[in-house]
Amino acid sequence: MPNMRGLLVLLACACAVGVASPTCAKLPATVDEFKTRLETEGKEYKTAAHLWLEALYVYLNADETIKAKGREMVGLITSTDNADWEKEMLGRATLQKQPYLYQSYAKGAVPDNDYKMDPDKFELEFTTDKLQQEGKVVYLMVKCGGADNPRPFRMKLTKSGIWKMLEWSSLQVGIKKPASEQE
User: Fold this and answer.
1) Where in the sequence is the domain holding 64, given as residue range(s)?
2) Is the residue at 115 inside a domain?
3) Environment class of residue 84 by beta-carbon count within 10 Å: exposed (0-12), middle (13-18) or buried (19+)?
4) For 52-88, how does the pLDDT look when each residue is reduced to its tens digit (9 = 90+)?
């Protein structure tokens, strides 16, 4: 008789491939709204990853008042292991040269459509998820419309049962130019 545990692991991995994240109705408008959603949506790592990008989209807003809310939101869903997340993110020239970088992770946002996406309604498409360190860290791969291969990142489960972004440097690697910038 085949190893049942091995079959279950294989089946779980096969089911995880190509799974899209749920969409949100609208980006959080206030930090309190974000905190409420984090308490429920943060308990599952794929919805927490989606929520992290929502917070990041708020943070990337040009309006300084909205950006400040986004800064706090991203801080709430980023592991304390990365307390200097903003310095790390803004220190990378890629985001400055390619302000549409994080839009490329929304399903359907590709160079041909200049990475157009609706931040109030988007999906992420995961190709891999693998729990590590006794289920306290998850390694995920998310499809990127501007790259040939999915990009990895890791999330960490907190003592309160909320998944937080731990490491995302590969999400900040450059992507293909949008059609409007190609020669």
Assistant:
1) 23-173
2) yes
3) exposed
4) 999 999 998 889 999 999 999 999 999 877 667 777 6
- Of 114, 120, 100, 101, give the one whose Cα is nearest residue 50: 120
CA distance 170 to 47: 19
Per-residue pLDDT reduced to its tens digit, 95-128: 778 889 999 999 999 999 999 999 999 999 999 8
**Considering only CA atoms, which of 37, 175, 53, 39 is closest in space to residue 122?**
53
Q: Is residue 121 part of a domain?
A: yes
Contact (CB, 8 A) for 143 and 150: yes
How far apart (Å, rounded) are the C-alpha atoms in residues 82 and 87?
A: 10
Helix (H) / strand (E) containing 34: helix 31-41
Please tell me the distance from the alpha carbon of residue 47 to that of residue 161, in angstroms, as a whole number. Answer: 13
Nearest-angstrom CA–CA distance, 165 and 157: 9
Do the domain assignments include residue 3? no
- The domain spanning residue 46 has which CATH number? 3.10.450
Whether residue 12 lies inside any domain: the answer is no
**Number of domains within the chain:** 1
Torsion of Cα atoms, 15 then 18 then 22 then 26, to 10°: 170
Q: What is the spatial distance between Cα 45 and Cα 179, in angstroms, rounded to a whole number?
A: 33
